[in-house]
Amino acid sequence: MPEEKNKEQDECFECKKKQKKDARWRQDFPVEWESDNYVTRREMVKFLALGSLTIAGANAVLAGIPHIVKASEMPRTRVALASSIPVGGSKLFSYPTKEDPCILVRQGNGDLVAYSQVCTHLSCAVIHDEKENALFCPCHHGYFSVDEGRPYAGPPTRPLPRIKLEQQGNEIFAVGVEV
Amino acid sequence: MDNRQAQGTTLFTALLVLIGIGVVVQLWLLAASVDALMRHQQTIPLYAALGSAAVFAINGLLVLYVINFDRKIKQ
């Protein structure tokens, strides 16, 4: 008796399975979810080739960025009077916009140099340390040389952007940024 | 599976792997470009772009080869 019952149940199960397979909605939507998401190797190759093209394009754009930025003209801004900065002295100014703080320093040999005041480590403001003859970042004790703006102590690894200067008579102008 | 089809499968898989390696190299070049730009270096992104274009050319040739090979097998 239990065997017959099992057989009936199996037949019923098969019948239901067949009914499900022949259901009306299956004719309208014949594609299985799994096979819809199945990616063939051919599709994968096409995807990789398109990805390769996209990355090559992105690389070309990145290579062009410095040239585009360089092409845009920098303003000419009056910074200070040359006579107002003594040897070893410094002056703060903003260039090229008001949101870009910079520092002008007169070196021991009388030459004037200017750098961005934003530390290349974590963007704190660097200050002039006359005793060390360096630009000093008080946040993490980073030191930059006044001659070239290169870091020589502390966590910073990149040099400070240098501000190009021009002197006309007694007046000093900032004319560009050298990175 | 006959010999020709088996050979095609092996070749297809090998080319797929080669193209995949090319894409990984390109991603590495892209990362190096971004890093160089952040360091304000201008020459590295240029060389990386040239390298990336060369890798793309190789990838493109491989894909064309696969498509032609596939077409021949189907014929």
Could you explain how this protein is built, in words?
The complex is a heterodimer of chains A (179) and B (75). Chain A is built from 4 helices and 10 strands. With 179 residues, chain A is an alpha+beta fold. In chain A, a hairpin with a 6-residue loop joins strand 2 and strand 3. The N and C termini of chain A lie far apart (91 Å). In chain B, helix 1 packs antiparallel against helix 2 (43-74). The A-B interface holds A 41-42, 44-46, 48-49, 51-53, 55-56, 58-60, 62-63, 65-67, 158, 161, 179 and B 12-13, 15-16, 19-20, 22-23, 26-27, 29-30, 33-34, 37, 39-40, 42, 45-46, 48-49, 52-53, 55-56, 59-60, 63, 66, 70.
Feature tags:
heterodimer; A: 179 residues; alpha+beta; 4 helices; 28% strand; B: 75 residues; mainly alpha; 91% helix; elongated
Compact summary:
The complex is a heterodimer of chains A (179) and B (75). By secondary structure, chain A is of the alpha+beta class.
How do the strands and helices of this protein lay out in sequence?
The complex is a heterodimer of chains A (179) and B (75).
Chain A: H1 2-21, H2 24-28, H3 33-36, H4 41-71, E1 77-81, E2 90-94, E3 101-106, E4 112-116, E5 127-129, E6 134-137, E7 142-145, E8 151-153, E9 162-168, E10 171-178
Antiparallel strand pairs in A: 1-10, 2-3, 3-4, 4-9, 5-6, 6-7, 7-8, 9-10
Chain B: H1 3-38, H2 43-74
Helix pairs in contact in B: 1-2
Strand order of the largest sheet of chain A: 1-10-9-4-3-2
String of helices and strands of chain A: HHHHEEEEEEEEEE
- Cα distance, first to last residue of chain B? 16 Å
Quaternary organisation of the protein chains? heterodimer
**Largest sheet of chain B at a glance?**
none
- Report how far apart the termini of chain A are: 91 Å
How many runs of DSSP E, i.e. beta strands of chain A? 10
Which band does the percent of strand residues of chain B land in? under 5%
Count of alpha/pi helices of chain B: 2
Strand percentage of chain A lies at: 25-35%
Helix fraction of chain B by DSSP (H/I, runs of at least 4): over 70%
Q: Uncertain spans of chain B, ≥5 residues at pLDDT below 50?
A: none
Structural class designation of chain A? alpha+beta
Largest sheet of chain A: 6 strands, antiparallel
Number of helices of chain A: 4
Mean pLDDT of chain A: 85
| Helical amount of chain A | 25-40%
Shape of chain B: elongated
